UniProtKB/TrEMBL annotation:
Complexes and interactors: Homotetramer.
Enzyme Commission no: 3.5.2.17
Pfam families assigned: Transthyretin
Job description of the protein: Catalyzes the hydrolysis of 5-hydroxyisourate (HIU) to 2-oxo-4-hydroxy-4-carboxy-5-ureidoimidazoline (OHCU).
Source organism superkingdom: Bacteria
Lineage of source species: Bacteria, Bacillati, Actinomycetota, Actinomycetes, Micrococcales
Matches recorded under SUPFAM superfamilies: Transthyretin (synonym: prealbumin) (SSF49472)
GO biological process: purine nucleobase metabolic process
Binding-site list for substrate: H8, R46, Y109
UniProt enzyme class: hydrolase
Protein name as annotated: 5-hydroxyisourate hydrolase
Keywords from the named record: Hydrolase, Purine metabolism
Length: 112
């Protein structure tokens, strides 16, 4: 099963997939967040099974534990975590949220 939301984390400095990054998915609203799922990136830096196959429309949040990832490699980082908020809309089959990561910068985008 592939989740409604997936991610792929690449370590742009080392030029390798970022394996072992803890990722959580939560529903986010004005009152706070409710965790939906949690996972860890695989050897290819991917999370294919991050939550259910279908999510209700709304705002969701991915939190990636980038500080722990870099600490495990003995690398200083400016970002202890990366938080990405995004909207899930009715009728969309899949959301892929990639992250290109370095110790002092990151980029994310709506993938396919």
């Amino acid at each position: 099963m592939t989740s409604h939301v997936t991610t792929h984390v690449l370590d742009a400095v080392a030029g390798v997939p970022a394996a072992g990054v803890a990722v959580s998915l939560a529903r986010h609203d004005g009152a706070g967040t409710t965790e939906v799922a949690a996972a860890v990136t695989d050897a290819d830096g991917r999370c294919h099974e991050l939550g259910p196959a279908r999510l209700e429309p709304g705002t969701y949040r991915l939190v990636l534990a980038t500080g722990r990832y870099f600490a495990a490699r003995g690398t200083e980082t400016f970002y202890p975590q990366v938080t990405v908020d995004f909207r899930v809309e009715e009728g969309r089959d899949h959301y892929h949220v990639p992250l290109l990561l370095s110790p002092f910068a990151y980029t994310t985008y709506r993938g396919s």
